[in-house]
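Let us work through a complete example step by step.
Step 1: write down the sequence.
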Amino acid sequence: MDDSQLLHTIEQLVNEEHALMQQSTEGDMEEIKKARMHDLEVRLDQCWDLLRQRRARREFHLNPEEAQVRPSEIVEHYQQ
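Step 2: predict the structure and record it as tokens.
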């Protein structure tokens, strides 16, 4: 996946996340929507991490195609 595809995926995930957030302000969020929201958050973290890896590899003249999606257990414990 190249950077433009990755950014497009991020945009789609963010749009879905915003739609779910809008629905949650209109009433209680169902368990299915809560689970989907969590999945979206994890996938977004993974996508952003992958994009940062690709950019860093490019900056240091390494192959960005060698960047890999990290497991949720790793990206969910990053300090911000």
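Step 3: interpret the result. The chain has three helices and no strands.
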